[in-house]
Amino acid sequence: MAKLTQKQKTEVIPAEIARYFNENNANQVTLAELAGIDKAFVNQIAQGKTHIGTTEIKDKYYEAIARAIGLKITPEYWQHFNTWNFKQGILALEKAKANKERVGIDGDTGMGKTYLSTIFKRKYAKSVILVKCSGIENSKEFAVNFAAACGADTIGTKGKLIKNACAKIRQMDGDILVIIDEFENSKAGNIPTIKAIADELEGHAGVAVIGIDVQKMLEKTAQRRKQGFIQVNRRWSFTWTKLDGDISDDILQICQALGITVKSAQNWLMSRVHDFDSLKNICTAALEEAEKSGRPVNAELLNELYPM
Fold it and tell me: pLDDT (tens digit, 9 = 90+) per residue, 164-194?
């Protein structure tokens, strides 16, 4: 059986317990009797706690409560993991936000860059402006999206949109960070636009650009003396955080967390998987098959699912 996630244990189930108590005039004693478990488990779980003393509460107690209150919970095979890349990315964004600095985060596809920016935006919903570059949008459309993300007017020339949006940011309280994700999709016209954003916000807000091989792209184009790229490259010099393409240590950590403990499976994953998107898809499929068939996740099962 796949493990329940921390969110299910600490947020979803406690919230449903509170709703159940309110709607049914029930209490912890009656729920414990209905679920067939000790009241001590109901008490801790209702508070969003995952341990009694130093002992972790097993999933079966959460599942008993869920059945008793009519809550259908589906075990999730994938969850958030504090990988090295994730922690490095968060540190870079936190620093840029607090110090109103520019930062670049560079990593290959599947390294979790978009996930990183989404989580950071969720953490600081009011003080982080998140906008993405699109390979099918021109620089005016990018400016419109940026203005919309800032809550500024979306009608006017590109220059006016950027100036008004940046003015809106400068009026915001606290430490503000602008994150421009998928920067590798930047059209030539986006580069001067992003330069203008960086200049308008200097000393007022941090600006982070995130993408694939963007440091190399800026450096090479700047060497060709292409207008706009020279200035943007200079503004982001010496501010890059490079995500590590070798995720073998992370794979081992994730395997342990998911309960994939057979060494042959761990070795199979470490030798063949090189990005988190693939790892998520493979582990999810393997865990689902293991639960369905009652077999362990091992190299034999993985080879059946993903033959060479």
Answer: 999 999 999 999 999 999 888 876 667 788 8
Q: Which amino acid is at 299?
A: A
Give the pLDDT score at 187: 66
Dihedral sign from CA coordinates of 282, 287, 288, 294: positive
- Name the strand (E) or helix (H) holding 211: strand 206-211
Cβ(46)–Cβ(71) under 8 Å? no
- Angle at which helices 248-258 and 276-293 cross, to 10°: 30
Give the pLDDT confidence of 57-115 residue by residue, as tens digits. Answer: 999 999 999 999 999 887 677 877 888 899 999 999 999 999 999 898 988 888 888 88
Two tokens at 26? 């029930």
Q: Is 133 exposed, middle or buried (0-12, 13-18, 19+ CB in 10 A)?
A: buried
CATH fold label, 84-242: Rossmann fold (3.40.50)
Give the architecture-level CATH label for domain 6-69: Orthogonal Bundle (1.10)
Name the percent of the chain lying above pLDDT 70. 90
**Distances from the Cα of 257 to the Cαs of 4, 264, 270, 278, 294, in angstroms?**
11, 16, 15, 17, 19
Question: Is 158 exposed, middle or buried, given 0-12, 13-18 or 19+ CB atoms closer than 10 A?
Answer: buried
* Residue 143, pLDDT above cutoff 80: yes
Comma-separated ranges of CATH 3.40.50.300 domains in the chain: 84-242
